[in-house]
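User: Structure tokens for both sequences below?

Assistant:
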Amino acid sequence: MLIFSIAVFFILQVGSGLLYKYGALHQEYWLAGFIGGNILGISSIYFLMQVYKYINPNVAEAICRGGFFVLIQLAFVLFFHSRLNLVQWSGICLIVAGIMIVSFCNTSIKI
């Protein structure tokens, strides 16, 4: 259930971010992007709360929020052809390393 909750949280959060960006780029879809993004974003909180049942909140936040940040950056590159420079790619790699350190050093994860 832990892995499922994290995966659904990621999907909903990334979907929310993509809808916000699309609505911002296309004025005629602004309201739809805003409403859809908020529905997905609010729904994702339920799955974050499920993650809290299995691991400490500080570890859950590192995995979920850090992972979301990395995934939304990659989604923007993929869907909107955003360009990241070397420093930004390095930052993403450091965030991934931080997530791994925090999660692998946690002994209270119950999968």
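Moving on to the next sequence.
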Amino acid sequence: GAEACPCPLVIVYGHPQGDAPTAGYKILSCTVIFAIHNFTLMETKHVVFLAIPEVTLLDVTGPYEVFAQAIELLQNRKQIPPYILHTISAEDGTTIKTASGFTIQCENSFKDINYEIDTLFVPGCT
């Protein structure tokens, strides 16, 4: 069989707005947001959405909503969802102001993550 990649999948999408912290990660640049990488329904995967200052709100909430709806669908079918969703801040604090002035309240800063990231969404980069 194929050897599993030891690194998380990093999905970079959206409009260019600067450098992203992607060193050491496998990069997939895509417009299709729903991606599955080394997933089985028996494993719980941490899917992380990085919120960066001046991000376009839809670049964070769109992909998040896809995974949230997948979780809801699985729960409605009495299945255990394979995803735990996290929104993290690219800065020291947990509040990020978007390009439109809307604020996103993240659960943690990227410095405070205490779990292995399986899939990382990085908006606003190419």
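User: Anything stand out in the second?

Assistant: The mean pLDDT is 75.
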